[in-house]
């Protein structure tokens, strides 16, 4: 563990490259499905979050994605055209809209998830329990700064 305190720039660059390549490979696995529906990574991210946080508000989605309203709006318009999302107004505050995947949207998410799941599942399955827990811990530290 003490060795980690002395990580060299080259080792950190290598780690960043591995994170980049891992991200690329996970999403390249699902490219066929994304292409089938003429959607891209931005759409995939929104669909994924809508599956995780059913009924999320637009403002909360903006916070999670860390994108501009304009960028999110473009993606949402595409998803509306594909007829895979629906909006419901908040019961207490009608200015707030909640977004849901409809059945078609859930089907598309599931297609994407099944392809991405294979690579991650195989990597986790071929790792020791301690490695999986440590990897999750390190990812959370990267995410939370």
Question: Which key phrases capture this entry?
Answer:
single chain, 145 residues, mainly alpha, Arc Repressor Mutant, subunit A, three-stranded antiparallel sheet, 7 helices, 3 strands, globular
Condensed summary:
With 145 residues, the protein is mainly alpha-helical. The protein contains seven helices and three strands, in the order αααβααββαα.
3D structure, described in words:
The radius of gyration is 18 Å and the shape is globular. The protein has one domain: Winged helix-like DNA-binding domain superfamily/Winged helix DNA-binding domain (Arc Repressor Mutant, subunit A, Orthogonal Bundle), CATH 1.10.10. Helices cover 68% and strands 8% of the residues. The protein is mostly helical. A three-stranded antiparallel beta sheet has the order 1-3-2. The longest helix has 23 residues, at 103-125. The protein contains seven helices and three strands, in the order αααβααββαα.
Q: How many helices does DSSP assign? A: 7
Radius of gyration: 18 Å
Strand order of the largest sheet: 1-3-2
Q: What is the string of SSEs from the N terminus onward?
A: HHHEHHEEHH
Annotate the secondary structure layout.
Layout: H1 9-29, H2 31-36, H3 41-52, E1 56-57, H4 58-65, H5 69-81, E2 85-89, E3 97-101, H6 103-125, H7 129-144
Antiparallel strand pairs: 1-3, 2-3
Helix pairs in contact: 3-6
